[in-house]
Write a structure and sequence with these properties.
Layout (H helix, E strand, L loop, with lengths): L1 H10 L11 H10 L6 H7 L5 E3 L1 H4 L2 E5 L9 E5 L29 E8 L11 E8 L9 E7 L5 E10 L2 E12 L4 E7 L4 H9 L5 H10 L5 E6 L4 E2 L4 E2 L5 E6 L7 H10 L3 E2 L34 H8 L57 H5 L3 E3 L18
Parallel strand pairs: 5-15
Antiparallel strand pairs: 1-4, 2-3, 4-7, 5-6, 7-8, 8-9, 9-14, 10-13, 11-12
Length: 403
């Protein structure tokens, strides 16, 4: 620990501070957080020890062989944004691009993340623990290779805050979260208006306008049409996958009519966000679409493909830490899907977070096998190497498979 503190001081790093964003960025992110109607969830979202990050600050790292051809060399970490090698984690590849699900076509949309860690009786965070793990083989799932994995403690919450920009201002339109239980992650999604009827009620509480009246009428009309979105992966017999297995969803298409910009901004800012579990915007449609520059959802977003239940969220999260050839036979494809493994068969991992020091992989198309974890997080006690004597199964599951 002394070595870490000395190195941190020389580098100008405040090792007591777990944030990887600047104080100004953290303050700006906190200022955007909406109020949630659920008191417990709201308390966790506004916890003063949340750790914030974006895909830029944490880096989009993925695991791959470090040799000069697929399957050669020990496993290390590479940069998904570095040119030169195709991988399943590129910055524009559906459905693995590092953007919030359903926003891969959205305009003026962004997101940031936050991590809540449970604490012990002395207010110390339970750490995320890393260990070596047998990954399924790149070409054959039965020929395992030694890679890296990590486990979030029971009680962790990973938040994703989705924002839309208008006139230089950011507005939150959706909050996503994954809550860590002993045997699974439970997704919870919060929106200002889970249903069209709830949006209509909010409009009726405001002074009457022609646009508002037309919007209320629309809210009680049926869904306009349906559509299907399917990944372009052709499948791989070695992994028993077929074309479109990576992602396929049918969804209702319901286009929002216009509303005054000031009214949309007011409602997004002042409305308590509700858990959408068990609700639908309209029967047959989880969320509307918009062609307007600014509305309750961003222009071009397909949020209807992302529901608020475990089944809807599973298609993307369940592929974390699987071979990049699981869904395609392309012999040039490298590496494994980013994130950590799920905690049991069928449970997804977390795609957007990793503990690796960015100096290990930044700008590297070829994976670096000399892996080390982020110094700041080790010093703050939020990342630790798994210790069987300290990290018990009641708080950390699946660890019987660790090395």
């Amino acid at each position: 620990m002394t070595i870490l503190l000395v190195c941190g001081a020389l580098l100008g790093i405040d090792l007591a501070n777990p944030q990887i964003e600047t104080p100004e960025q953290v303050a700006a992110m906190r200022a955007l957080l909406p109020e949630l109607a659920d008191p417990k969830a709201n308390k966790r979202l506004h916890d003063d020890r949340l750790i914030f990050w974006t895909s830029s600050s944490i880096g989009v790292a993925y695991q791959a062989h470090s040799g000069d051809r697929p399957g050669s060399g020990p496993i290390g970490f590479a940069d998904a944004g570095a040119p030169g090698r195709p991988n399943q984690n590129t910055l524009d590849r559906f459905p693995w691009a590092p953007v919030a699900g359903g926003t891969h076509r959205a305009k003026r949309a962004d997101s940031f993340k936050a991590l809540y860690l449970p604490r012990d009786s002395r207010r110390r965070p339970y750490p995320i623990v890393w260990y070596r793990y047998d990954l399924e083989g790149l070409v054959d799932p039965h020929q395992v290779v030694l890679g890296w994995d990590w486990i979030f403690p029971v009680g962790s919450i990973v938040w994703e805050i989705l924002t839309a920009e208008d006139a230089g201002e950011a507005y939150v339109y959706e909050v996503r979260s994954r809550w860590r239980y002993r045997d699974h992650w439970r997704p919870r999604v919060y929106r200002p208006f889970p249903t069209a009827a709830s949006a209509a009620a909010a409009i009726l509480d405001r002074p009457r306008t022609n646009l508002g009246a037309a919007f209320v009428e629309y809210c009680y009309q049926p869904v306009q049409s349906s559509a299907t979105i399917t990944s372009r992966e052709d499948g791989n017999p070695a992994f028993a996958t077929s074309a479109g297995a990576a992602f396929s969803a049918e969804f209702g298409v319901d286009e929002l009519p216009p509303l005054p910009r000031e009214l949309v901004a007011e409602l997004l800012d002042l409305t308590q966000f509700q858990d959408v579990q068990g609700a639908a915007w309209k029967p047959g449609c989880a969320s509307p679409i918009s062609k307007h520059n600014f509305h309750f959802v961003p222009q071009g977003a397909l949020l209807a493909i992302v529901g608020g239940d475990e089944v809807s969220c599973a298609p993307c999260h369940s592929t974390s830490l699987t071979s990049s050839r699981r869904f395609a036979t392309n012999p040039r494809r490298w590496g494994w899907v980013r994130g950590n493994h799920g905690d049991h068969d069928g449970a997804g991992g977390i795609l957007s977070w990793h503990p690796v020091d960015p100096a290990v992989f930044r700008g590297r198309a070829r994976a670096n096998p000399n892996v080390r974890m982020r110094t700041r997080w080790i010093a703050c006690g939020i990342v630790r190497k798994f210790n069987r004597g300290k990290h018990h199964k009641g708080r950390y599951t699946r660890l019987q498979e660790t090395r």
